[in-house]
Amino acid sequence: MFTFREMFTSLAPFFTAAVVIVLSPFVKEQIPSAVSNYLVSMYEKWLSRFSTPQVTVVIEEKGNFKTSNQIYEAARAYLSTLIPNSTKPKRFKVNKEGMQNELTIDIVDNEEVIVISNGIRLKWKLHVEKGYDHRILDRYLELSFDKGFENEVLECYLHHIVQRYENSQNYNGVRLYTRDKGPRLSSRPSGSHDEDGQWISVVLKHSITFEKLAMDPKQKEMLMDDLDRFLGRKDLYENVGKTWKRGYLLYGPLGTGKSSLIAAMANYLKFNIYDLNLSGRYSDEDLRRILLSTTNRSILVIEDVDCGAELDDQRREFDSFTLSGLLNIIDGLWSSCGEERIIVFTTNDKDKLDPALLRPGRMDVHVHMSYCTIDGFKLLATKYLKIEGDHQLYRQIEGLLKNVEVTPAEIAEELLKSGGTDVVLRGVVEFLEQREREKSKAVYLKKLLKSADIDVDAEGLVEFLEQKKLEKAKATEVERLLKSADIDAEELVKFLKQKKVEDAKAAEAKRINPNESDG
Ligand SMILES: Nc1ncnc2c1ncn2[C@@H]1O[C@H](COP(=O)(O)OP(=O)(O)OP(=O)(O)O)[C@@H](O)[C@H]1O
């Protein structure tokens, strides 16, 4: 038995020849046009019975809210894995950027990639539309296949690609996303800077876990229980009609481990981190878009929220975000899109926050990251110096830690210094004693200033004087080095002069166009 397709293949040359003859000028003259038209239309009808019409699905880079379209991203990643083993395309891109270990292969526009999946022939093509100034206006993928396979393609094939993408995102560990502002345009209005912004990511190479974190043990346990409960309560959230999300406020001085705690949470939950710094001039609309472009099972970190939230709504620039815009992210309707989401706010100074941000129900858990305690110190010493059990200097260190405020970051810095355990711990003692001396100087100075009725920040003054002392010591050291035979003083002076000129130029450029500063 012949199949239709086989019959078509064998008869096609005869029909084609017949139509060519009918259409040739000589034959056309001999037969009436009505007859030749009829023959051609019959031929087309016959042809359409055997050739299958194509369907094309358009997958745009940005969704309706100008947020990134996950299918587009998944398809780009998927296509790049196909390139090395595909006969098509003939052109493709290859890249390796700073922090990446591997080469990344990517498709280029207008090159076809052909895939056969479950017997369906699929043709992929990337389209890039550019403006007169070569700026990219639009990017989309076209996926074409035979009509009749719509369900298989939409429900199985594309679904599989997205699933594969999500798995691969977590496969290499937690990813850290940060905001890339997109191309800088001089014509852009001075308000929003995020119009073309998108998230860019790297794998988070932070091996911190809760176990390695120096913080109050009870608080640590409470936090881990809270995260476990959150993960296991999908049904409860659904039953009570609450969005499956949780908010944490981490507050405490610089270097007490807020960022480390976020990394530990992400490693614990295997959630990606989206890191947003509010100093990036976002409008309310930007914030909504940014929120919508984050994925489920992720932690959205809003760092130093006091910097963004200290201005009230009236005093803000015209299209900069407002406090209510920020609150909408936490508990407004927009925040109910997606599930299994965590929002973390960090601040060095909780008192600076607008009370609206602290109202009950806004942030579910407040975590205070404090200065180093003896328990925290012992934990760090065990990790950094591999000390098992007790050490003779612990009592002295405990006494000193009760008296001065040092951050775990400062202690970590001391513990990283070279030398054996005893040398390093003695270094810690010296460091703490120095801080103790500074503290008593500040207390003494404060007393003096008070008695003279002078209102200045005594600690700041002591710190300033210590800094000056340090600088003076450095200057003496430079002088000593210059006098030694190894250093060519003239070369050095030339270099410093040159640097001064460059710094001045950079400062001037920044003054003329502040938007063209960093990045
Ligand atoms: N509680 C901690 N436990 C263990 N290590 C810590 C802790 N706090 C700080 N460190 C060490 O100090 C470094 C800096 O700390 P981290 O960036 O987490 O502090 P932070 O509170 O987020 O500071 P900032 O407010 O400046 O961002 C960390 O990489 C880590 O090595």
Describe this structure in words.
- With 519 residues, the chain is an alpha/beta fold.
- It has helices at 4-23, 25-30, 33-50, 70-82, 150-171, 217-231, 234-240, 258-269, 284-292, 305-309, 323-331, 355-358, 374-385, 394-403, 408-415, 421-451, 458-483, 489-512, and strands spanning 54-60, 92-95, 104-107, 112-117, 120-130, 136-146, 175-180, 198-203, 245-251, 272-277, 298-303, 341-347, 365-368.
- Helix 4 (70-82) packs across helix 5 (150-171).
- The longest helix has 31 residues, at 421-451.
- The relative contact order is 0.06.
Question: What's the topology here?
Answer:
Blueprint: H1 4-23, H2 25-30, H3 33-50, E1 54-60, H4 70-82, E2 92-95, E3 104-107, E4 112-117, E5 120-130, E6 136-146, H5 150-171, E7 175-180, E8 198-203, H6 217-231, H7 234-240, E9 245-251, H8 258-269, E10 272-277, H9 284-292, E11 298-303, H10 305-309, H11 323-331, E12 341-347, H12 355-358, E13 365-368, H13 374-385, H14 394-403, H15 408-415, H16 421-451, H17 458-483, H18 489-512
Parallel strand pairs: 7-10, 9-12, 9-13, 10-11, 11-12
Antiparallel strand pairs: 1-6, 2-3, 4-5, 5-6, 7-8
Helix pairs in contact: 1-3, 4-5, 9-11, 13-15, 14-16, 16-17
The structure holds adenosine-5'-triphosphate (ATP).
